[in-house]
Amino acid sequence: MQRLGEQPDDKLHKRLYNAIRISILDGSLPPSNRLPASRDLAQELGLSRNTVLTVYEQLLAEGYVFSRAGSGTFVAETVPDSCLSTASMPIGSNGAERPLELSQRGETLLQHASASPKQWGAFIPGVPDVNAFPHQLFSKIQARISRRPTPQRLTYSNQGGSPELQHALVDYLRVARSVRCSPEQILITEGIHQAIDLVARMLCNPRDEVWIEEPGYWGIRNVLRMNDVDIRPLPVDEAGMVPPEQPGGAPRLIFVTPSHQYPLGSVMSLARRQRLLGLARHAGGWIVEDDYDSEFRFSGQPIPALQGLEADAPVIYIGTFSKTLYPALRLGYVVLPKPLVGALKTAHTELYRGGHLLIQAALAQFIQEGHYTAHIRRMRLLYAKRRAFLTALIEQHLGKQALSEFNSNAGLHLILNLPDSANDVAIAAAASARGVLVRPLSRYYMLPNHRRGLLMGFACVPEEQMAAAFTLLLDCILQCQALPAELSPVQPVG
């Protein structure tokens, strides 16, 4: 382990982790090679065995290694896509290779990068059926608006977006989500990531404490890491985020998905919502409500937004058109509390230079003419059928226990449970190699004690394609010996 001395300023467990990881990536530790027993390696390096065990567990969780009961820990045959080396070696003017030098924040971001290189097909989570969008109708609206565009629609936006879209969203959000706001409070962004980045930059100082859900969306964590805040993951149960009995440090921001927790699917209870509102008011902080797919609830009444629960609630409400229309549209919106409107709109103009006003105006007409709600109704029926088909497929071949207990009958994905001994990262990588796209549940956790499972999207997968893709996925799970006897398939998938 000569590489242990290459980063003397790092903590011991991080130095050991990097040394083993780099040795795997550059081939020094070839696939199927057995790693030393944790006790032997600890004695050889003069470390505690707990340090070595922590590193082995992290490598196992990320798919670099796999364990075989009674035999030891071995280098995986393949590593996850996100672990491929991104440090290219450009050729300098003298012909020598020059190492890529990134900031510490940049290096950290790449270490935690989780965006999939493939974004379409069975069973990619969080992607709507983009083929079902009424493209012809929307194109006609765009063409009509683009014939004689005003200069105001062809220059930079300094009002937080198209006034037409801001007004259209006020009416839609009031009826559909019980959100209380005026057009001036709405800021149009290029998706949720930009909205979170803006909020974190403007409301947090370095090392401010921020609460997030555990598990939670990896994209939020990455944006927050780049803004140098202290992230505190809080567990999620059937009633949503569980605030600590004694909060300790006051959180500056509290990020939640109350209407449909991502990724587990629970719905935040009224008591939990009221408690979070009280904590935010007392601490002088803000709740950031991510309402990413609230439109797709397939039974019962819609869950009202947290933002509308109290007048002047300390809630920054974030929504997106990526799930209801299509992701490449890159349009989202923020409903800002009145005290934040001026500052955050000015900051948005300075940092991001808003635009896309023609397409925003077209979308405003699309909403005002009733096409948006009609499209959502059609998609809700379509996705409900696909969800039921996938649910039946899983229950038929793996039993009801293979489905998550947090079943709120909403959203665009299901969770397939796996035993704690399973390597869901390795299963997802093996499935991806065979053209089946799932995401490992363990990657949505920050802390080491996490559940194993697979996120399976159904929105963009026609029923006639599900069975064949599920057969391939099941084969990958069985090859990794991830199913105990009670979850073994009882018959072949048709």
What's the arrangement of secondary structure elements?
Layout: H1 12-25, H2 38-45, H3 49-61, E1 65-68, E2 72-75, H4 104-111, H5 135-146, H6 163-177, E3 186-189, H7 192-203, E4 209-214, H8 218-226, E5 230-237, E6 240-241, E7 253-256, H9 270-283, E8 286-290, E9 315-320, E10 332-335, H10 341-352, H11 357-368, H12 371-398, E11 413-418, H13 424-433, E12 439-440, E13 452-457, H14 463-479
Parallel strand pairs: 4-5, 4-7, 7-8, 8-9
Antiparallel strand pairs: 1-2, 3-10, 5-6, 9-10, 11-13, 12-13
Helix pairs in contact: 1-3, 2-3, 5-11, 6-11, 7-8, 12-14, 13-14
EC number: 2.6.1.1
Pfam families: Aminotran_1_2, GntR
Organism: Serratia odorifera DSM 4582
